[in-house]
Amino acid sequence: MQIFPCPFCGPRDEREFHFAGELGKTRPDTRDGVSDADWARYLHEQRNEKGHVREVWMHMPCSELFVLERDSVSMAVIGSSPLRGAAE
Amino acid sequence: MSAHRVAGRGRIDADAPLNFSFDGRAFQGRRGDTIASALLANGVRVMGRSFKYHRPRGPWGAWVDDPNAIMNVALNGVELPNCPATTTYLEEGMAARSVNAFPSARFDLKGGLDLFHRWLGAGFYYKTFMWPDWHLFEPMIRRMAGLGAVSDAVLEGYVADQLHDRCEVLVVGGGAAGLVAARSAAEAGQDVCLVEDHAECGGGVWQRAEIEGTAPADWVAAQVAAIVAAGGRVLTRATAFGVFDHRMVGIVENRAFGQAPRLRRMRAGRIVLASGALDRPVTFANNDRPGVMSVDGAGEMLARYGVLVGRRIAVVANNSAARAVLPALVQAGAEVVEVDPAAGPIRVLGAKRIRGLDQGGRRVEADTVLASGGLTPLVHLWRHAGGKLDWCDARQAFIPGRAPEGMVAVGAAAGAFDLESALEEARGVARGGAVEASVSHYHLTPLWPAPGAKGRQWIDFQHDVTLKDVELAARENYVSVEHLKRYTTLGMASDQGKTANMAGLAAMAAIQGRPIPEVGTTTFRPPFVPIPIETYHGAHRGQLWHPLKRLALEEAHRAAGAALGEYGGWLRPGWYGQGDVAQIIAEEVRMARGTAGIFDASPLGKIEVMGPDAEAFVDFVYYNTIRTLKPGHIRYGFLLSEGGAVMDDGVIARVDQDRFVISCSSSHVDGVRTHLEAWRQDGNDPDRIFIHDTTQHWATVTMTGPKAREIVGALGLEVDLSAEAFPHMRLREVVWQGGPLRIARVSFTGDVSFELSIRASRAEELWQALIAAGAPLGAGPLGLEALSIMRAEKGYLIIGKDTDGETMPHDLGFGIPRQKKTVAFIGDRSLHNAKANSTARKQLVGLRVAEGAVMLPTGAHVVEAGTQRSLGYVTSSYDSPTLDRPIALALIEDGVAQMGREVTIWHLGETRRATICGPCAFDPEGERLHA
Amino acid sequence: MTKTYSAFNLLREGLRANKGWGRAWRTPEPKPSYDVVIIGGGGHGLATAYYLAKNHGLRNVAVLEKGWLGGGNTGRNTTVIRSNYFYPESAALYDLSVKLYEGLSKDLNYNVMFSQRGMIVTAHSEPEMEMAARQVNAMRLNGVDAELLDAAEVRRLEPALSFRADMRHPIHGGVLQKRAGTGRHDAVAWGYARAADAAGVDIIQNCEVLDLILEAGRCVGVNTTRGEIRAGVVGAAVAGHSSVLAGMVGVGLPITSYALQAFVSEPLKPVLNRVVLCPPYGTYVSQSDKGGLVIGGGLDRVPSYGQRGNMPMQEEVLSGLSEMMPMLNKVKLLRHWAGIVDVTPDSSPILGPSGVEGLFLNCGWGTGGFKAIPAGGYLFAHLLAEGTHHEISRPFDLSRFDTGYLVDEGAASGIAH
Which parts form a coiled-coil structure per UniProt (chain A) (predicted)? Predict the structure, then answer.
């Protein structure tokens, strides 16, 4: 059982969290002629890094999205911060 | 007292006899005995049979390192399979039975299998049983395999208690090192918890005459008392079985026989591993005979249970720790002869009863053989946590190397095999000092399997893996340590390699001429010892497996005779009354169509979206255009995934300029709320949009049918309910009995309907008022089954039933926003990829059967004539009480273009015909809806 | 040296202390170049090598494995083999696999113990029974065997299941595929390895690929811990590490890695006949020939490359088993472990060109790669030898994510695996 630090509620059990996706995905402007390939990249492509990752998670009890930095091999948590104002 | 018991020794209660039986024979043991010690005290050595060859076996070790004495044990009507006799404490009345042996471990009819061992070596089954077919042989092999049988009794009270816990320092193991580490840490002010898997702490201390100048019992008691006095906790019969991420330690606490263990999920700030070390078997011919035991096991049997395992003992050992055990055996009355393993190959003489040893023609008379190939630290938890192991030449063992974060090993687990250095280190470590592993007094002569040696030399006792099997694996190039394990099954027995692994990999190293550390170890996996599946189960059972959501009106429904059932995670009325269910449901439909039905729609989502950007937000999350919706108006629409598939449908009401209520499907509320929240916070200004799920705050009662207006009118609301003043798809907020009431004119039946939402606490008042107003007109409660039929008559769909994960809105007849909507919305781009544009998409249509034909089965497919290729399937099908004929909805490839075409319906090999029609079979012009 | 496996040879070798058995495969030094280099010595990589030799006459082939053969998901799965799929594309793929499995022991002269004991997926409500009917019809129309069972039939076949009236999710019936079953996972890897080696394929263990060599935009070989190896064409079958490998040449994949756990109990006398999956309990189970219950369930919650699992999913899966078969809650668990699986958006595999010339991908099998080994190898060999798709692998091309032609069984099955 892992412990994730919600920036708003503090350290909580992993079961309270929902993985929302990798950090850094920007929705293309769909009124602007997005190609099939670009749309597919946005929809499906994952960096899926081995090691240091930056992800967006939701803490279900408070419904806040936040950025979680962790190691996808050792499972060490490096830190977390609110999504608002996050880089990228 | 039997001849094998030594008066005054052991931690058993000599005055507390316990009666038990083994393989049908009655015996007596003492309180404090394990089944194994009690049997040894009675002179019983053959306690089981090996897995493959059915060789007679007695215990090798005295605790978790015994793979041989496995029994089904029954007590008070509870039978537990595969109990290790060495770790099962004896209780009065236990009936133990050896597993994998018939009729008994002593006389096993399958014992003759051993004669065929030369054809049953490692992996023999990979080379045969292929012709004519594996299935011919498999049933016989299945029956032969397996250990104990599991009884089909469901043990009602066998429920694991589970709890969460935390501590600053968790000490695993209550031997000398663990006790002093725990005491030092506790006295330094830390919150300490020590877990010990025996019934009492002490570990190897019990084998000593004294410790630090004190008797073992006094010393152990003093340590435990000091730990407790300093605020620490000591848990006995508790095994730390695994270390998981973020230092979560699984601890299983054993209770009396027949009671399920307790699971303690311990979050430890720091873990001190003091799990000790095990004696390794020595590989010589017939080293599996009952009566060949580990030196440490004999020492434990004497020290803990007062059992002297033999009178004439031959000892085959290579290390100082083993030699230290011998004086106690001599003192207890045994005659002990040491045999130097280096002096020549050893062979055990005798079968069920040992007669002695043969070494190069020299015979040593003995009734018991004790062996010790050196100590192996128990590093399982260290490896679970990701700690490294280093090979130590001096100890000939893998010992803890680079530590995982927050973990340290002390005592024998760290390779400190002599007490003085173990205690010193443990005290230092607990205070945060460094580990200075020393080997000061422990010394050994390397002793590993010798390839090419004669005779059958066991590596894995339970699984009957011999040195020859390792040699065969090497010959066939299964040389990686994992291949060795998997090909020979070495290390896969109940003890998970605690006895077999070191000898196995050393044998492979010797065969290949490689150093042992280069061969490496297999992965250590939890659990450290086998634990009942129930441990993980606990209260997560029965109705609590997935608790149902309950309606505010549940009591009212029960009073009305509702048949309650699960619908989308809610307990809801399926219908009302008892009798012919189909008839009741049809009557409810006819009632609602004829007068009116009163329906509890409370689980319908009521998610409020508010704020200055709410309009733009709902316009973005909806497929349909919402910005043009006027306050007080309602629109039907779809929520899509970014992949363009319909995620949910429902109506959205604009309460005022900056406030919307999204009414999603009952079973999708949580998912929709999360979906909306994610989009609100990612890509929008979350300060300008607020989302609040009020689903359970409001109860909703729907009045539907031609008399609905009249009945709602009886509530005396200050609102004009006429079709002109309050048309279809409008919302009104009024006050009723001093509280807010929200009225929506929406319909899931095709008849005039009023959805009345009120505070959940006042639902009963509203329900009773509507029932009272409706009764004189013949209106009454309407269950969900009837509603499902009514909505299908109208061609209204249910997401997930009449759609699948690929359905897009234009497959459902809602193609306009896809073509016309000018602002971006979720899923928009996906509606224009190749598949979205395909003409072969499955579209929602109706199906009509010939006059007098019975209804189509839901789940039947529509197939292409000739090829029988599936073109789609029936998603909903009912006998319509309103139309007095069967109706059906279906998803069919390019179905809309084929209106009026007759198609073939295929169900479980039978075919029928049906005609494609529009999905709406009832009031297609909508006259009743708008009435 | 005895090469052929047979009862007769087993008998003969037994009489001479099994001294005559030869190596199952050689331990060759890598050559400087091969016609085909396959990265990954798991089931899919080894099967690919075997079918390259057998079906396409290509023998100048190397399989590079960073650890030991079958050490990834091939040796960590719950050994279920089935083709109970809804869409024709999936059915064609997985039924090809089942058919190849049916003849595999004889084909490879290695008993992989494919035991067609059948698999039941239970249904727990009337709507689920309607979905079960839809599924059975789809399977039969796809040419795959399937039977719709009612509750009494399920009970007759698997009496260990709970049929208590107060069960949270009572069993209403189920879908039976009789041809489904289990196989011996290691034997599949070893059998393919032995047969490929006999056909001349070099199987090189302890050889990790560090980089892919690109020349003029084409993949022409690999740099490994044992030096550079050139290749006419490179195929990657590295489940669990597909993103890392593709990332070496800048190819992004629609894959997320997750840990999938599996569990085995102590050996018991026969108590369960088939593979049983109860979707609302998130758990499936079979009993191995040795007698252990082999238990699996859903993915861990947190994306991961760590080959170990955590307690939440352990508790979820094992309490699911206790609910399904409460008589088994007193059985002890012997061992649990985890593998890293490639999860794609539609839970279907990716087979085909990578977008970089000379590099082909076999990945994305998610939780169900083992059952697909023969077909995966068969189709991947076709791709590597011919450079174009076999008709059965075409729908699984990476381009489906652009066109939207996903093959998503999600709607039709409880837990995909």
Answer: none
